[in-house]
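Exam revision sheet. Question 4 asks you to relate a sequence to its structure. Input first:
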Amino acid sequence: MATRCILITGAGSGIGAGIATELAAAGHHLVVTDVNHESANAVAAGIRDAGGSAEALVLDVTSDDSVAAALAAVSRPVDVLVNNAGLQHVAPLEEFPIAKWDFLVQVMLVGVARLTRALLPGMRARGFGRIVNVGSIHSLVASPYKSAYVAAKHGLVGFSKVVALETADTDITINTLCPTYVKTPLVDRQIADQARTRGIPESQVVSDVMLKPMPKGVFIEYDELAGTTAFLMSHAARNITGHTLEIDGGWTVQ
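Answer key, structure tokens:
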């Protein structure tokens, strides 16, 4: 595979950092972006220390100005965009602050559209682009107390289908990864939130809420997401567009 420049949002920790580290090890150049510049710098420095190629940029996907500044500062044209920035809030809808609800959608859906829109012209001009949205099992199914997150992640699926049709005339694809739970700091916080909301121990949240619906019964790991992303970047995947790829341990086949 050709060496690509890959921009990942929310890459200062968790899934974004994991995918960045794996793809850098495969020889690609990583643009590690995060709203927290210190976190992004740490991940990029770790990649460089391991012999890889990376730069770090501060990026707030909810801000037009921040997107414009980041793309003006990037060292080379972006071939691959991984829309990963995300957050969670767990509460019944009646207790869900509407400002928080709106913010989750702004980050995980509107922000995806904002950054994709900004990068598409360059991809078109070069005749190549890959857009990988990090969705969730909650792009396909629902769980209680996560109305904003589920709504945003469901929205990614429809968004990807539309952009797939709009880019069908060139070698650009867009797809949505739909993993079940990945053991990240975000999930660790969810475990605590779910335990409090449901009134059960944290261990029971893991066994009965998170892993029980998965026949395989294990958390997803970073290399699985990075490997799927690498495949979607390849020539072999040039006709896979507008799809969801369920990395769910059998959850949705039941």
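Marking note for examiners. The mean pLDDT is 96.
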